[in-house]
Structure formats: C-alpha cells, structure tokens
Design brief:
CATH superfamily of the largest domain: Vaccinia Virus protein VP39
Number of helices: 20
CATH class of the largest domain: Alpha Beta
Low-confidence stretches: none
Strand order of the largest sheet: 3-2-1-4-5-7-6-8-11
Distance between the termini: 60 Å
Strand content: 15-25%
Mean pLDDT: 90
Largest sheet: 9 strands, mixed
Number of domains: 3
Length: 570
C-alpha cells in the first residue's frame, strides 16, 4: 500500500512534469530556461493561492528582496495566468511550495543540475563549517549546496556566485521562499577576484570538460589568476582554472573543497600547476570517486581539498564506496559518506598520506590509485620496463591512408588491427598491404613480440615466430622482451590474467575512454618466480592457447555447418 508520503511524491512529480510540458510546448513564449519557468510559476501560484485577489506585480514591486526581479516575473504574470489558475484548481499549497525547491538529479534537460545530496554531505564533513565562518559557493547554480549546508550549520555570511542569470533568479526566489539570507550574485568565477568577500570556507561544483583556449580572454582579465597561467600550454585541463580561482579567493586559514575531472590529476600538461600548488602546501587531499556520481556529466571525478601549510597529501581511492542508483548512476548514502570521511581521517588499504618526495617521484600526479597498494598488487616483482628492450606504438596511419595500401592479393606485408585480436588470439588470416614505405619499417613486429591495446578494455596477445612481415597499427603497443631475462609467453600469460588486467586498468587514464601510456605501462609489476616455475607456466599457457585456437576453429566450423542446413532447400 502506498504511504501518504509516496502519494505526495507522485503528485509532486506530476506537477513538475506538467510544468515541464507547458515549458516545452511550442505555444509557450515565456521563460529563459526550464528551471526559471518552474520556479517562477510555482512561486506566483503560492502567492495567489494565499490571496486570490492579489495584485502579483504590486506584491513583488513592494518587496525589497524581490523588486529588482519584477522584469523577470512580469511575462509570467502577463501571459501565464491561465496556467496558474489551472494549477490552483488541481494542486494543494504544499505541492506548489514543494515545486519551488524540487530537484531531479537525474534530469538531463537542465543546465542547472544540482549537486547530489551525498556529495554535499561529504563536502560539508571536509569543510567543517562553524558559526563564525563565511561560506562561498563558486558556481552556485540553483543554490542547493548552500541551502543544504544551512540546514546543518548556520554561518555568519553566505555568498553564491554563478554566471547564469537563470541560476541567480532561481536561487534568489528559493532563498526568499526558505527565509534564508544569502547574497547570490551574477559573476564570472574566472574573471572576477572574490577574495574581498573574506570567505574562509569555499565549495565549488563547477562546469567540467571545457577548453582552456575558450577561456583565455577571461583569464587575462584576472591578474592573480593569469600569474599562475601565463606560460600554460593550451592543452591544460580547464578545471584547474576554477580550482586556482577558488584557492585565490580563500581567506587565510580557510578551506576549499571542489569536484574536478579525474583528468586534471594526471594530465602531463597540468604538471606545472600541480607542482606549484603542492610545493606551496595548498593541496591537503584528493578523494577519487565513483564515475557515476554526477549523472548529468558522466565523468570520472575527484574531490580536491585545498588548505594551507600542508607537508603531505591525503590520498583516498573511494571508487568502490558508493550505492548503485540505476544502470549508469551511483550515489553516496549516509553510510557511504561516513565511510569515505573515515578513510580520509585514517590509513587503510585504500587511503594514506603521501609525502612530497613520493609525489615528486610520480611527476606530481595526484591520482590516489598511483600511491596505494591493492590486494592484487604484485609484492615481489620487477617493473615491465626492466624486462623489455623496447616498447613502441603502432604506425600512425589513418583509416584512409591504410585503405589506400590494402592489397587483395598476398604480398610480403600484412597488418594487424585491434579487431584482429580476440580472446588473446590473433586472426590466422591477416589482411595484406601492397607495399610499405621505408619510414614505416620501424613499426614492423619482431619474433615473439607482445601486442597490447592502448585503450581499455585491454587486449593482449603475441605473434610467436613470424612468417613474413606484420605491421602494427596505431591503437596498439608492441613489446620486444629481453629473452635473456624472461620468457615472452610468461609475460603474456600474466598480462592476460585478472591480476595483470587489474594493473593495466589502474594505471590507465582518461574520461570515458581510458588509455595507458608507455611510461605507465613500464610500471606494471611482473611477478618473478624461480626459472623452472616460470617455464612451466609459459608451457602450460602455450598449450592452453593451442586448445583455445582449436576450440575456436571448431566453433567457426560448427556455425558454418549450421548456416548450411537449409541452403539447398527449395
């Protein structure tokens, strides 16, 4: 049986859907955005519900906190009274009021996606708000973080900054409705200097995935920020602009917590920025979160904690601490937030403090996975880089270039693509090339080369003794092992194992498509056993590959026979 609360949620959902449908109607000529439309109509409806004869324009004009928003309300009052009257007939006041503050985290039809409640609670645990604090939300959106924060702790002053006028209107109306004293102001986080606000506690869930070149003109308008980025390459991760802006706005002794894309923690172009922040003692900690935390963006994200005087950096890999919320999404429930907070405060298998020396050694990367040991890590092993003569990337040929070289007749040259590798085996019949320019000969495989895909999910195989020349293409690495040190088959067997794949996945980087680079590939730890044991594993692996090849051939033959069953029937 549905509870009263469940019924209310259903009715509220019905109300919000009705408002959304009216907004999207081709006959609607009012509204700068969906969120503004829903909040404006809901708010005006509550005013009229309490007094059916109210003059809405005069009511807003005479209100000191809303008077300057009258020009936004006027089109709704002039053109949407029929909709407002209809809502008054169909819905009670409690639902109309609830619609003002309603948010759907999983709604992709809005540019003002709210910060999920679990993220807010985790950030608050790390910010440690107190009554005398000045709180600033950079990129405040509809004000959700601020309103949620004030439910748990009152502070002396509160500011919210957002570049979107719709966000400012929505958050100001909500603040008035909730009776909160918040200074929401329209502004560009990158261009403007907000250090004058005296905020000692700052939060930011800023837009991610932007391009630096598109914001360069804004950076140049902010002397403090430009000082950090004067010599920055165009390939830096844009997220760092917001991180630096927040750090520069922070009052002495303050704390700044923000979300940023995982790419910024390892991107080589960002090294100088990470180095300056680390060496200045501003990076207190990094928490890597599950990739489904921000449904509207679907990015891999980390939570960055900025404060002063740090001599080490707290690293937490919290990717496995979450609650599933649908196929693509995840969230932080109360117990998840408590667990991550505990991990941030205490050492564990997935959390510890890292010295500056370690960070320097890792090229100032700030990805927690690079500094933690895992249950499937190899304790007694040798880095792959010490066992290879060479690791190379395949030939940089475009699909068009390659298509022009393809031969229908057998020649001295063949080529291998990623799709030619399946279940650790290479197709027995590889396509031919007409000829190969001398400059591409360095991409030809050698006997016993191991082949590895650059992108996850990782594919691994080897060529054994070559019969002819085979060209590796661009999405592949090929490894030439030092056979005086180790059997290539043994290495292949490990890289194909669960523990080998786990290392490759941890060392890979990227958002959406994850890629491993040659430097990180060299760090994969290969377990070393007595020579006889390694040879035994290699021999068994060779036999297993032969069995698998035979089974796959049998499967292909069976499928062909099955397809032929009715070919001759007329």
């Amino acid at each position: 049986m549905e509870s009263r609360e469940d019924k209310k949620k259903l009715k509220l959902g019905s109300l919000v859907r009705a408002l959304g449908e009216d907004y999207e109607s081709p006959y609607n000529l009012v509204g700068n955005g969906r969120d503004e439309f829903i909040v404006a109509i809901s708010f005006l409806s509550t005013l009229k519900y309490k007094n059916r004869k109210i003059d809405l324009k005069e009511e807003i004009r005479s209100n000191d906190k809303l008077a300057d928003l009258l020009h936004i309300f006027e089109p709704y009052i002039d053109r949407k009274m029929d909709l407002i009257d209809k809502l008054l007939e169909e819905y009670e006041i409690d639902l109309l009021e609830a619609a003002i503050t309603f948010d759907d985290v999983y709604n992709h039809r809005t540019d003002l996606s709210p910060t999920p409640r679990g993220i807010t609670e985790l950030a608050l645990n790390l910010l440690k708000l107190e009554e005398e604090d000045v709180l600033l939300d950079l990129g405040s959106g509809k004000g959700n973080f601020i309103f949620d924060s004030l439910e748990s702790q009152e502070v002396s002053r509160v500011y919210g900054v957002d570049i979107n006028p719709e966000a400012i209107f929505t958050s100001r109306v909500r603040a008035y409705f909730l009776g909160r004293e918040v200074d929401f102001r329209e502004g560009n986080i990158i261009t403007n200097d907000y250090s004058g606000l005296g905020a000692n506690k700052i939060f930011s869930n800023f837009p991610m995935g932007l391009r630096y070149r598109d914001s360069l003109k804004f950076v140049e308008e902010n002397p403090k920020l430009y000082k950090y980025l004067r010599n920055a390459p165009m390939t830096i991760t844009h997220d760092w602009l917001f991180v630096l802006a927040g750090a520069l706005a922070m009052a002495p002794g303050g704390r700044f917590v923000c979300l940023m894309g995982k790419r910024g923690t390892w991107n080589a172009a960002d090294k100088e920025i990470r180095e300056r922040l680390v060496e200045k003692g501003l990076v207190e900690g990094v928490i890597e979160l599950n990739s489904g935390m921000l449904p509207s963006r679907r990015l891999e994200v980390s939570m960055l904690i900025i404060s002063e005087g740090n001599r080490e950096v707290r690293m937490v890999d919290a990717r496995e601490v979450y609650t599933k919320a649908g196929y693509f999404f995840s969230l932080l429930k109360e117990e998840d937030v408590s667990r991550i907070t505990e991990l941030y405060e205490k050492d564990s298998a997935i959390s510890r403090s890292v010295s500056f020396a370690e960070i320097v050694d890792k090229g100032y990367e700030l990805s927690p996975a690079r500094y933690l040991e895992y249950k499937d890590d190899i304790k007694e092993g040798v880095p792959l880089g010490e066992l290879v003569k060479d690791i190379s990337r395949g030939a940089p040929l475009s699909s068009r270039d390659l298509s022009e070289l393809i031969s229908e007749e057998p020649t001295d040259y063949r080529y291998i693509l990623l799709q030619n590798i399946e279940d650790g085996l290479i197709d027995e019949t590889l396509p031919y090339l007409t000829d190969l320019e001398e400059r591409y000969h360095k991409y030809l495989l050698k006997d016993n080369s191991i082949i590895l895909s650059r992108n996850a999910p990782f594919k691994v195989s080897s060529v054994g003794k070559l019969d002819g020349e085979i060209l590796a293409t661009g999405n592949l690495f090929f490894l030439e092992l030092d056979e005086s040190k180790i059997d290539p088959l043994y290495v292949e067997a490990f890289l194909q194992s669960d523990r080998g794949i786990a290392q490759l996945e941890r060392l890979s980087k990227g958002t959406g498509i994850t890629t491993i680079n040659i430097g990180d590939l060299k760090e994969v730890m290969i377990p070393r056993l007595p020579g006889e044991e390694e040879r035994e594993i290699a021999n068994k692996f060779r036999k297993d590959k032969m069995k698998l090849r035979m089974l796959m051939n049998q499967l292909a033959s069976t499928r062909e026979e099955k397809a032929e069953l009715f070919r001759e029937v007329r």
